[in-house]
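Predicting structure from sequence has reshaped protein science. With that in mind, we have picked out one protein's residues alongside their backbone shape tokens:
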Amino acid sequence: MLAAGFYLPLTLLAPLEAVPAEVAAYTAPISTAAAPTAPAYGASGIGEVGATGLLASAGSTEALPIASISKIITTLVVLNAKPLTDGSDGPTISFTRADVQIYNDYVAENGSVKPVSAGMQLTQREVIELALVGSANNYTQSLVNWAFGSEDEYVTAASAWLAAHNLTSTSVSDATGISPKNTSTPTDLVALGALALADPVVSSIVSQPTVTVPVVGTFNNTNNLLGIDGIDGIKTGTLDEAGACLLFSADVQVGDTSITLVGVVLGGSDHDTVDEDVRSLLASVVDGFHEVQLTAAGQEFGSYSTEWGEATTLVAAESASAVVWSDSPVTAVVTAEPLSLATAGEDAGSVAFSVGGQTVDVPLEVAGTMEAPSAWWRLTHPGDLF
């Protein structure tokens, strides 16, 4: 009687040991490798904003002249020194005979210019619009003189800014890009384009098809691809040593996901050729993105089995998909809680999918109920309880 009084409550009330899940192998979706179409001349590259590295590149790996793409660097460096809140026109800049002389100097060099006169007053934003949309060398030069006092001081500030943003393959020797010594690589320029898009002032200005600046006039954006194939920026460049160049951005839709791409083509024979090749490159890269299903609700990722014969499966609580570039691998890591008892639909862990630098987490739940053992099983299986 004493033994029974000890044994019965000990076995009937003993806590149940939780059992770990047996994780099932994950079969990743199979994707086809992309085949981007990039021009053979000069240098080119394209990347996804927020992702690491280039999706595609071709041509020279050496730094090449970038012409007026330099004005994106100039604007970002000026805004770093003289911040301009988006929607604000900023301080007034007064123009003098010195600015007229700058105009004359660039005319003599066959540079891109816009009219200026002594006594004119424009806002900081208006001057930036003339520099980026109108690609006016004279207003770009006047802008850095206003912000830094001289072009030499600007070059010093620009070099520090480039280093701070890890654009180590880019160098500048002037503000406008009329110097062939302003050089860069597709990798750096794609990163530069992402920085330009992240700045609300720059991104809003470069997407404008035209600008109207009082006294100066109305000017079309030099980027003829705006509004085509989702292209919404960024800057053209033209120079004998650089050829025709375009740093571009585009928002494209893949399934329900919007993707922002930044690309560049350097060294084209003319802008019509570059524009055509940009569209081909962009289309081929967009074709390389596709939406894949990572899991469907109810898909099995593991199972539980107890010593007393209860069993259930560990399944995805919801469906999930992701946009994948080319044949980027998809991996899955399951985290599951040990269980002894369970109710159908109870949370039991998660599965983390990794694809193309992004992580998608999906909750896991048990598909069925796992009940407690019977009293008879407890009494007859003390070795499984202790």
Remarks:
- The chain has two domains: 15-30+293-385, 43-268.
- The CA atoms of residues 74 and 350 lie 47 Å apart.
- The chain has a mean pLDDT of 93.
- The domain at 43-268 is CATH 3.40.710.10 (Beta-lactamase).
